[in-house]
Each structure stands twice: as structure tokens, then as C-alpha cells.
Amino acid sequence: MSINTEQFAAANKATVDSLLSVANTALASAERIAALNLNTARASLEDTVSGVKAVMGAKDPKEALAAQTALAQPAVEKAVAYTRSVYEITSQTQQELAKMVEAQFGDFQKSVAGMLEMAAKSAPAGSEGAVAAIQNAIAAANSAFGNMNSVAKQFAEAAQANIATATKAATAAAKKTK
User: Fold this and answer.
1) In this model, does residue 1 exceed pLDDT 60?
2) DSSP state at residue 59
3) More confident residue, 100 or 157
């Protein structure tokens, strides 16, 4: 069993393409986070200036306190929205990377199955036990990957539910401060 030059070149190209996809996904996510941070910083600065002007324009301490209090709820809501946006970006990135890993694992499974089939056909008589052991090990690895993937999806769903609950609680608490 030998690997020819075309197979080797194709495998290298597939590896490079896969690494480029991961890098592009990571860079796109970093770009989205950076844009979110920049927009949030800009909005925060504008809100601070507006708040200072409102407090400074107050005619008495009671009006100044009312102006500060009025700024609290929008600030909490914006913080919740920011956190939700960061979570959405990271969640989408994680999902894209998980799809890539699943696709790569599927391709790997096909390659290994093909090589194992070729090895079984060219194996000497009496080696059926060794081939069966390798097939069982591959089946166990496939099962473990499937279980790990299922647990990761359950964890992501639980995290998403927790974020939604925390968002509702923070928003409700902000409304109570009014």
C-alpha cells in the first residue's frame, strides 16, 4: 500500500484549505468583536457627555439626582445588549468551527475506512483478527466523537438558556430601579 504523489498533494491542499477556513472564521469573529467594542465605546462616550450635560444643567440637587437616575436603566440595557451581542458572535463562531470540525472528521472517517478496506484486501491470511480490532477501535472513536459532539451541543443550549435568563433578570432589575 503506497500513497502516490497526487494523493499526498491533495491531502496537503485539503489541510491548507481547512486551516485557511479556520483562520478566516477566527479573523471575521475578531473583526466583529472589534467593531462592536468600538461602537460601544463611542456610544458610551456620547452617553457620558449627554449625562454630564443633563446633570450640569440641573437647577437643583433633586433634579440632578433625577437626571442621574434616569441614565441608569439605559446603561444597564446597553450593557445587557452588549453582552448578548458578544455571546451571539462567539456562539456563531463556535457553531461555524464545529461544522468545520465535523466535516473534517467525516472526511477523515472516509479516508480511514478506505485505507482500512485496502489494507484488509491486501492483508495476509490469518490477519482478520487484527483488521477486526482496528475496525472496532475506529467504531469506538466514531462513537466517542458522536457522544462528545452531542454533549457540546447540550452545553451550548444550556449556556444559551442561562444567558437568556440572566438577560431577563438584569432587564427586570433595571426596570425596578425606575
Assistant:
1) no
2) S
3) 100
Q: What backbone torsions phi and psi does residue 157 show, to the nearest 5 degrees?
A: -65, -40
Domain hosting 29: range is 5-176
pLDDT digits (tens, 9 = 90+) for 117-141: 776 777 677 777 777 777 787 778 7
Asked whether 37 and 82 are in contact (CB, 8 A), the reply is no
CA angle, corner 26, sides to 20 and 30, nearest 5? 140
- Rounded CA separation 34/53 (Å): 29
Q: What share of the chain is helix, strand, coil (3-state, %, to 5)?
A: 90, 0, 10
Radius of gyration of the chain (CA): 28
Say how many domains are in the chain. Answer: 1
Q: What is the pLDDT of residues 3-35, one digit of tens each?
A: 567 766 777 787 788 888 889 999 999 999 999
Contacts of 47 by beta carbon, 8 Å cutoff, 6+ apart:
71, 74, 75, 78
SS3 state at 55: helix
Long-range contacts formed by 45-48: CB under 8 A, 24+ apart: 47/71, 47/74, 47/75, 47/78
Q: Which residue matches cell numbers 439626582?
A: 65
Task: Report how far residue 17's alpha carbon sits from residue 168's, in angstroms, rounded to the nearest whole number.
Answer: 42
What CA–CA distance (Å, rounded) separates 70 from 54?
A: 10
